[in-house]
Amino acid sequence: MEYRTLGKTGMKLSHLSLGASSLGEVFHSVKEKEGISAVHTAIEKGINFIDVSPYYGHLKAEIILGEALVPLDRSRYYLSTKVGRYGKEGVNEWDYSAQRAIESVYESMERLHTDYIDLINVHDIEFADLDMVCNETLPALVELREKGIVKHVGITNLTLRHFKYVIDRVPEGTVESVLSFCHYCLNDDALTDYLDYFEERGIGVINASPFSMGLLTERGAPAWHPAPAPLQEICRKAAVHCKAKGKRIEQLAIQYAVNNPRIASTLFSTTRPDAVTRNTEWACQPLDRELYNEVREILEPRFRDTWLNS
User: Fold this and answer.
1) 3-state secondary structure at position 269
2) Alpha-carbon distance values, 14 to 19, 109, 141, 185 (Å)
3) Active-site pick, 3, 55, 56, 194
4) For an engineered disulfide with 209, which of 181, 264, 283, 301 has Cβ 3.0 to 4.6 Å away?
5) Is residue 75 helix, strand or coil?
6) Residue 43 to residue 71: CA distance in whole angstroms
């Protein structure tokens, strides 16, 4: 496993990391014991960064992850969670107020059985009033950082231009990292347009969803996937091509996503220990450049297609 420093935080993250959204049954039902075993397997394989949110499974992911973390040495991993996006009884909720953000951090710590959070993120700011994020949410998290309750502060987002909007309007050092998803994968590398901007400001970069929420898998995108039909079809063609070459598109997707040293870590999510083992093995293998070029040519007609303006 390779370890890369996240901006100016001093945290050296495994270049492949574990997202705990699957523990909240975001993608499919979960067997709790298996999910806990997947977390333990990740740590054993050298993964040292775990990301979760109270939104995933409407608290379920944090609860199960908390159970998984109880027997583990706290020094073996960095823990990331989020504020701003929630839900209960199957209904999504958003609240980016300072008071709710502070309450949420303490509630998450209780569920996760920890007395501090390594990285706290404002979740999915594309759903927020960005000025509220700048003037209320982030200052509240900085206050917690000053108290040592959280160690570092970041923001997560699908719509890339929103990162710049927020960072340009808050004091330097407020935002220490960004978490972007579905914009550094085989079918979309739009995140690269912003790397110079982040590096100039010492902001670390975390990439999530190397499989583009299921688009880049042999199984294909789930029924709820928001990607346009032409993009889904061309990704299926790419998966078939990889299989014909004796490879899985998931393998190529992982290897591509972790191949950029300017990105500290890439998050994937699973509840299966065997998938953790497989993905960590793939992440430590070199990128198959020939196959990548072939797949890139297949994807070219819909390259950088997305489902929200970015």
Assistant:
1) strand
2) 13, 23, 25, 18
3) 56
4) 181
5) helix
6) 12
Q: Where are the alpha helices (DSSP H) in 148-261?
A: 161-167, 195-200, 229-244, 249-257
Q: Parallel, antiparallel, or unpaired for β 3-5 and 12-14?
A: antiparallel
Distance CA 290, CA 233 (A): 22
Contact 208, 19 (CB under 8 A): yes
- Amino acid identity, position 10: G
Please write the tens of the pLDDT for every residue from 200-249: 999 999 999 999 999 999 999 989 899 999 999 999 999 999 999 999 99
* Under 8 Å between Cβ of 100 and 108: no
Q: Which two tokens stand for residue 303?
A: 């390259």
Closest among 159, 141, 201, 213 to 177, alpha carbons compared: 201
Contact 235, 292 (CB under 8 A): no
To the nearest 10°, the Cα dihedral for 55, 58, 60, 63?
Answer: 70
pLDDT of residue 27: 59
Residue 56 is a catalytic residue:
yes
pLDDT of residue 309: 47
Tokens representing 242 are 């990889």
Biggest CA-to-CA distance, the chain: 55
Q: Which of 264, 275, 220 has the alpha carbon at shortest distance from 242?
A: 220
Check residue 50 and give left, alpha or beta (phi > 0: left; psi -120 to 50: alpha).
beta
Q: Which amino acid is at 258?
A: V
